[in-house]
Design brief:
This protein has eleven helices and nine strands. It is an alpha/beta fold. The protein folds into two domains: about 1-35 and about 80-125 and about 170-245, 3-Layer(aba) Sandwich (Rossmann fold), CATH 3.40.50; about 35-80 and about 125-165, SIR2/SIRT2 'Small Domain' (2-Layer Sandwich). The two termini are about 20 Å apart. The structure holds adenosine-5-diphosphoribose (APR) and zinc ion (ZN). Adenosine-5-diphosphoribose binds near residues 26, 36 and 194.
Length: about 250
C-alpha cells in the first residue's frame, strides 16, 4: 500500500473511531533526541542490558545503572516533546483518545500535555530510597548524578536511590498493567507508535486490542515482527506521520 493510500486509510479509520488508545515505544522519542534501544546506535549497543539494566545487576552494583543513567538523565532533561507527542495530547483533548500506554520512561507524553499516561515501565525521573523508601520526584537527583554522584544517596538515611524505571527481571507496576489491559479491552482503535514489540507483556497488547475488536494502526521506522496484526502499517518517522494522520 503506497504511503498516501495508507495515510488516507489511517485518517478514515481514525475519523470513524471513538475510543482510541495509543501504545508507544522509544521510537516516538527519537526525534526528541533520545536514542531508542535496538536500532543502530541504540542504548543496548552501548550498554549491555544484562550488565547495566537488570534488577539483579542493580542490587549487586547500582553504580552500573547510574553510570548509564548519567547519559540518560542528560538526554531526558534536555529533551522536548516532538510533534508526535503533541498530536496525541491534542487528540486526547478532543475526547477521542482515551489514553496513552507507554513503554517509555522519559515523561515526554506528560510534558506534551497528555493527561492519561500509563507508564508500563515506570518513569526515569522519579526515584526512591532502597532503605527508607523516601521518594524523590524532582530533577535534583539527576543533576547530582550528572555531576558525578554515582550512585545517588538518600538525603534522609544515606541509603542508595533507585530510579522508578523498571529494570529487566523487575515486576511491572501492577496498577499500570491492569489499566493498560482495561484500555485494550475497551478500545475500537489502537495506534502503535515507535516500538519493536519485542518486550513482553507490552508486545501482547496490540493482539489483545485486536481480539477485543479494535483496529490496529502501526507507525514505525522499520518492520516489526507483529506488523501482521496491523490493519494499516505506516513506515516512517513518528514526528512526521502521527501529526499527518491525526490532523
Ligand atoms: N519514528 C518511528 N519509529 C522509530 C523512529 C522514529 N523516528 N526511530 C526508531 N523507530 C523505531 C525503530 O525502528 C524500532 O522498531 O522504534 C522502534 C524502537 O524499538 P526499541 O528500540 O526496541 O524500543 P521499544 O520497543 O520501546 O523497547 C521496549 O525494551 O529495553 C526495553 O524497557 C525498554 O521500554 C523498552 C522496551
Ligand atoms: Zn533513605
Amino acid at each position: 500500500m503506497s504511503d498516501d493510500n495508507a495515510i488516507d486509510l489511517a485518517q478514515r479509520i481514525i475519523k470513524d473511531s471513538k475510543r482510541i488508545i495509543a501504545l508507544t515505544g522509544a521510537g516516538i522519542s527519537v526525534d526528541s533526541g533520545i536514542p531508542d534501544f535496538r536500532s543502530e546506535g541504540g542504548l543496548w549497543e552501548r550498554y549491555d542490558p544484562h550488565e547495566y539494566a537488570t534488577y539483579d545487576s542493580f542490587l549487586v552494583d547500582p553504580s552500573k545503572f547510574w553510570t548509564m543513567g548519567q547519559e540518560l538523565a542528560d538526554l531526558i532533561l534536555k529533551a522536548q516533546p516532538n510533534e508526535a507527542h503533541i498530536a496525541l495530547a491534542n487528540l486526547e483533548k478532543t475526547g477521542k483518545l482515551r489514553g496513552v500506554i507507554t513503554q517509555n520512561i522519559d515523561n515526554l507524553h506528560q510534558t506534551a500535555g497528555s493527561k492519561n499516561v500509563i507508564e508500563l515501565h515506570g518513569n526515569y525521573l522519579r526515584a526512591y530510597c532502597m532503605d527508607c523508601h523516601h521518594e524523590y520526584a524532582d530533577n535534583e537527583i539527576h543533576r547530582r548524578v550528572i555531576n558525578g554522584e554515582i550512585p545517588p544517596k538518600c538525603d534522609k538515611c544515606g541509603g542508595i536511590l533507585k530510579s522508578e524505571a523498571v529494570l529487566f527481571n523487575e515486576p511491572l507496576p501492577e496498577k499500570a498493567m491492569e489499566e493498560a489491559v482495561a484500555l485494550c479491552r475497551n478500545c475500537d482503535l489502537m495506534i502503535v507508535i515507535g516500538t519493536s514489540l519485542t518486550v513482553y507483556p507490552a508486545a501482547f497488547l496490540p493482539q489483545l486490542a485486536k481480539n477485543s475488536g479494535a483496529k490496529i494502526i502501526l507507525v514505525n521506522l522499520e518492520g516489526t515482527n507483529r506488523d501482521n496484526v496491523a490493519d494499516v502499517v505506516l513506515r516512517g518517522r513518528a514526528s512526521n506521520i502521527v501529526p499527518r494522520i491525526l490532523e
